[in-house]
Amino acid sequence: MISKILSPEFGHFTLALACCLAGAQCLIPLMGAKVKNSRLMALASPLAWGQFLALTLAFACLVTAAVTDDFSVQNILQNSAVDKPLLYKITGVWGNHEGSILLWAFILAFFGAIVSTYSQHLPLSLRAKVIAIMGGSAAGFELFCLTTSNPFLRVWPAPLDGQGMNPLLQDPGLAFHPPILYMGYVGFAVPFAFAVAALLEGKVDAAWGRWVRPWTVLAWALLTCGIALGSWWSYYVLGWGGYWFWDPVENASLLPWLTGTALLHSALVVEKRESLKIWTILLAIGTFSLSLSGTFLVRSGILNSVHAFASDPARGVFILLLLAVISGGALLLFAWRAPTLTSTGIFAFFSREGSIVLNNILLCTMSAVVLTGTLYPPFIQLINGQTLSVGKPFFDNALIPIALFLFLVMAIGPVIAFKKGNIKQTAKTLGFAACLSILNVVIAFLILHQIIPALASGLCIWIILSACSDFIKHIALFKTSISNSYNRIIGLPRSFYATYIAHIGVAITILGIIGMAASQQKIVEVPIGTTIHLAGYDWTLTNVDDRQGPNFISTEAVIKVSKNGKPITWMLPSRRFFDRQKQVITNVAIHTNLMSDLYAVLGDSKNSTQTTPLFVLRLHYNPLAPWIWIGGFIMAIGGFITLTDRRFRVGTPANRKKIKEV
Prior knowledge:
Elements: H1 2-5, H2 8-35, H3 38-42, H4 44-67, H5 74-79, H6 86-91, H7 97-117, H8 124-147, H9 172-187, H10 189-201, H11 206-237, H12 248-273, H13 277-300, H14 313-337, H15 352-384, H16 392-412, H17 423-448, H18 451-475, H19 482-491, H20 494-516, E1 520-526, E2 531-534, E3 537-548, E4 553-563, E5 566-571, E6 574-578, E7 583-587, E8 589-592, E9 596-607, E10 613-623, H21 625-643, H22 653-656
Antiparallel strand pairs: 1-10, 2-3, 3-4, 4-5, 4-6, 6-7, 8-9, 9-10
Family: Belongs to the CcmF/CycK/Ccl1/NrfE/CcsA family.
Protein name: Cytochrome c biogenesis protein CcmF (CcmF)
Keywords: Cell inner membrane, Cell membrane, Cytochrome c-type biogenesis, Membrane, Transmembrane, Transmembrane helix
């Protein structure tokens, strides 16, 4: 019964309805703001909710088609099958181009509805413009769905079974990675809308900074979770033994993260000092533009990647036009109205604001380097047909010096006072931490015999110790009574803790990356019963069996790992053969104690000239590898804690006044 109600035709209709409502959401409130008609502006919220509800129905129709194995829908036919597990039938809805674009539009509509609900305290004109701009962006993606990426296209006659899903995507990590990543991408549409609305209003002040900052922090935290989850998936599914490969699509997610990090720092200065207004507006436009650019690159066929969805030129041209309209229009408006945004706050070079400016310069420089390295090969190929590859050596050599300087600023910046800092007081706060960090650099260099990892580890330790030193200073530990220190602890704003938690998360991630640089590995071809020695561990291949999975056949190895004769763990790496797709994927076995990972991959089996079969094993010892993802999630936790800060729930006195409507 439900499948008849939520039919593909009904989904197509509700998608078209959502597009119409999004267009109305864009035009009617802007028209109302133009003529100062409060009734037209007040329509922004119900139109946003109407669009969201229509897209919810459209998305439910596609999920219903997937769950009920409706192979008359082309999208389901190409990406599902009868024997596909239920979880992956549902998650497979967004594991393809058409479904992912519908998910993007759905999340954008969701944010539009939430903004319309939680922006009642905004001036009516600004609120209407913010919701209208989000409606215009959503209308573009919904039109994209309807014209070149319709997820509800029918095929006739309908086959009895589908073609199945890419086996690499049949993993729990991929069930959550795309939605969380997309929420981060699309979340930056909110500060983008605030920025464009502010340009239309011709006003950016402290209240605007307070309004835009929580949405920026939310998008940044979600994008951080999405990137960390995707990196973890790459580590444990692809079987390459690494966490980041400077893949073009990986870079496409890193770009808005870098500029988004700069944006959330700039918005703080706008809120505190009404300075860096132009910086903040430009970063808001640039961050969402980079999110859209990543969508274009993934779906245009320009970039070759294991993550790429589609290579249809028509789709690429449509997204390019959409990018030109949204981002190009916003940049033209910025060029026209930005000179009117004068800063009223004044600050010294050595101040919290000054460190944030330097932080922004470094982050944007890193973003420019990543963008150049990502786009240069396809650009050269377009010009003269020459195929180039820009990989890890380029990015490491170009980014590491900038990153080291950035870590230095991260340790000092939060300790400096706003407006004008005291150099002596700052040096006093950080002196002991600096000495310990220098000692760490010396010890690390003696162990690693490499100066760059030693410097990086020292700076990471300094970030952590500087946070501890500033915390001790704020609670006056050892300088007052325990009860007074406790009262200071509970009296500190949550944003204080959130800042240092996020920075410590960065330091932990970098320490994990440094540890991975010291990883050890062996690739061996051995018969059953052989013991391999690696990193002080004994890895014994005890057995290899074939097993039947729900839609695959698995060859599974059993490896006993021991150390000094004491058993540590049993590891079960495998290779899965999916008959429908004629594809083999690896299933990595990982044993972790949170300080290091034991990592095993089973390769192709080979027959020797004798009767004993040989099996290829790739074994890794990855010190500090778990810290990479632990640090990423700690960063995100810092962002979520920021959202609970009281000043984001309590408006400024000026905002509480009833705004007279025309």
